[in-house]
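In this supplementary section we document a worked example of the pipeline. Step one takes a protein sequence of length 327 as its only input; no multiple sequence alignment statistics are reported here. Step two produces a three-dimensional model, which step three serialises into structure tokens for compact storage. The input and output of this example are shown verbatim.
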Amino acid sequence: MDRAAFDMQFRAAELARLAAVADLGEPVCVDELDSPAVRARLAVADVMVTSWGVPQLTPERLAAAPRLRTILHAAGSVRGFIGEEVWRRRITVSSSAEQNAVPVAEYTLAAVIMAGKKAPFLAARAHQTRDGWQDVVGRDDLSNRSRTIGLVGFSRIGRRVASMLRMLDTAGVLVSDPYAAEVDVKALSAELVGLDELLRRSEILSLHAPLLPETRHMIGRRELALLPDGATVINTARGALIDHDALAAECASGRLDAILDVTDPEPLPPDSSLYDLPNVMITPHIAGSLGAETRRMSNHAIDELERWIAGEELRTPVTADSFTAGA
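The serialised model returned by step three reads:
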């Protein structure tokens, strides 16, 4: 992992836990896998703990680690660095994506509540006018009661968000996901529907789908046009799920609002019109784990290491099948 990730995720307490169950070499953290010193370490390594900044595990690099039996990722998706050679060698893989889902779901719930009250956009208006009070008089749309909320993607984050939304007095939570089971959606008091129906009914739309070739720009001009006037689009997943030109046009017209924690590209170019719209809130990819939240993931990786040493099943394994599906 890169040094910044290590310094943030592995403090004294985490290093003490590691040292209690494993033989740690020096340096404990490396950010490359090709130098002679690191190759010497790889030659005797049984376990690799990874996080942000891990280099691609190419066949050549894995060949330098003949004893490697498990990879414990103290971050989210392993898609960026795992290849077919890992599965061919039957190396066990675990991810902390479930732990990273926690702050994203929390942020999404907050975004939904803020969207219901139009809080970010009223705040922007108050900065302009120095008097935002007149903007709420007589309005019937500043409420979190009886809102219909649509979730695109019943991922681990989508499921957490659906569960958390039960605390609100909504008019209903809709889910669209071609791989979701209706019984699982119903168990969280939500309704499984097709994407077009979800868009037509949703006053607040929140995206939780993986970025795959078939999901790129899945929310484009046609899909945005299906949303009712005044709807808010929330994206904490991947920026490229939305056609940003189409979204900018809808927001510039005043018909839709947006809360974007991810964009395409990231960051947006300085001349993007989305920066200039008072009904678009842009944050710099902060929904995921930051600061102390990241140590939830490193501690999970150490938990998995302790289970592996004890011969127990890992709690969050990544298999070749789940990897193909977008883990």
